[in-house]
Amino acid sequence: MVTTRTRTRRLLCAAMAGSLAFLAGGCGESDDGKAVDDYVTADKLCGGGAVTKDGAKALELITGDTRFAASGKYSTVADAAEKLTREAVPAASGRGDICRLYPEAPVDELRVRWFLSNMPPKGSSASEFSTLSMGEKAGAAHDTAFVTFPCSHKEHPLARPDYISVWIEATGRPTEPEGDVRSQKNAYATLAHSFALAMARELGCEDNGGLKAKPSLIPAS
User: Fold this and answer.
1) Do residues 168 and 111 make contact, with C-beta atoms less than 8 angstroms apart?
2) Does residue 180 contact residue 202 with C-beta atoms inside 8 Å?
C-alpha cells in the first residue's frame, strides 16, 4: 500500500498523542502549517471556486479521493493572479505556484503552477502529450496537463495580449496506467482547464481567454 506524506504524518501524530513531543509542535500540521485533519472537498481548495464540478470528478479519478488537505492561506488563485499581475508589467514573463493538492492516495501531491509570456507558444508538444483544442494551446499526458490562453483587456484593446499557461502535474511521477490511458489524460486536462478558467476570470481576461465553461477533450487535428 502506498502511504502519502500527509497520511504518514497523521499516523505518527496519533501514535504520539498525549506526549510532550505532540504538544511541543511540529506534529499535526501539513507543509503549509495546516492541521493534517483539516480536510475539505475539492470545491473549497485553493481559495474556493478553482475546481469546477467537472474538475472535482477528474480529481477523484486521478487520486481516488474526495477530500484533501485544506490549502494554505496564500495558496489561492487570487494570490497567484495578483503576483502574476505584478510581474506582467515590468518583465512580461514569470512563473509561480497557484497551489498544491494533497490527497490520501497513490499520488503524493499535485502541483498547480502558472507561467507568463508575452509571446504565443510555438512548436508542437512532446510526443507523450495529446494536443487538445482549448485556448491558445493545450496538451495532456497521463501525469500532467497544461492549458495556455491569451489574456487581453477591454480597456486596452490595442495592447498585445499576455499568454498564460496553467500546468498541473503529479510530483511523484506515477507510471502510465494500464488500459484506459485516455481517461487519465482527460482527467488531467479537465483539471488544468478548471484552474486555467479560474485564473482567466480572476485576471479579468477578455472572453475568459477564449476558454469555454466546459473543457474540450477532443484531440486537435
Assistant:
1) yes
2) no
